[in-house]
Amino acid sequence: MQFALPPRRNLNAPPYIRSSRLSLQRRKQLKAVAILGFALLTVFFLLSQFFYTSTGTAAVSAGTPSLVIVTVLDRVRWSDTYIQKIIKNREDYAKRHGYTNFFANLSDYESSLDNAPKSWGVVPAVRHAMASHPHATHFFYLDVHALFMNPSKSLDSHLLGKSRLDSLMLKDVPVVPPDSIIKTFSHLKPQDVDLIMTTDSEDLSSGSFIIKQGDYAQFLLDIWFDPLYRKYNFAKAEAHALDHIVQWHPTILARLALVPQRIINAYSKDSSSAGVDGNYKDGDLVIRFFGCDTDTKRSCEKEMDPYYRLWSKNSKTE
């Protein structure tokens, strides 16, 4: 019985000639792809360094404001004359220092307040401002019942500069006066600050504060506006909610700086609850008519009028 034999191999022929040629060609292709990929990654890296700052935030074009002043306007309750005075005062200040204003309408947020006091509008207004100005660094919320009285002082030199802020920060003091056992951090550095506030004689002031754009701000605003707090019926609504949050959330407290009241929150002489040396004096940046909208014996418009006339006179001479 015979068996078919396989074809005889030429032992002198190089094995896999075709496969070898294909492998060489593929290696060349892969090498070219690798070089191209590396080149693209290099270009992307260089562009990312050009368009992004060292902090990881997108670089912005010249002229983009670094600070936004946030004001909530209740156009139903207050006269147009009163509101236009507030707008004129803040637009003048912003224009002098390269800032911009965000005038929010309270009516835009009332549906989200779930019947909570209207003063809660501060939280969605600040969030709205941040969404509208994603490249701004800081946001200064200032209650509508307040005026800039010293237009020559920029917030950058008056408060936000590192050396200036370091000199103003109140360390190891009660977060909520007069005797809270929770105190501000004694080792906090200016570069680690994301929230700047003042207190009066009773509470943290939710009517005048500066917050830095970023994850911390989103975290704080999310917690602050939680339905649990809005529906808790705090005696002073969002102010007492903030007192609670800052005292019992170390993550929030860890990046909070308290500064003297008159730096950004000087109270008028008719306002109660001013802290030690918290009443307005000539030369202060801001005067705030705290409580003028809740005290039936007071009138916000009448209280503001003489200060508005003084500001108008002084602003024309500068």
Automatic annotation (TrEMBL):
One of its GO terms (molecular function) is alpha-1,6-mannosyltransferase activity. GO terms for biological process: protein N-linked glycosylation. Keywords: Glycosyltransferase, Membrane, Transferase, Transmembrane, Transmembrane helix. Gene3D superfamilies: Spore Coat Polysaccharide Biosynthesis Protein SpsA, Chain A (3.90.550.10). The chain crosses the membrane at residues 30-52. Belongs to the glycosyltransferase 34 family. This is Galactosyl transferase GMA12/MNN10 family-domain-containing protein. It comes from Aspergillus avenaceus.
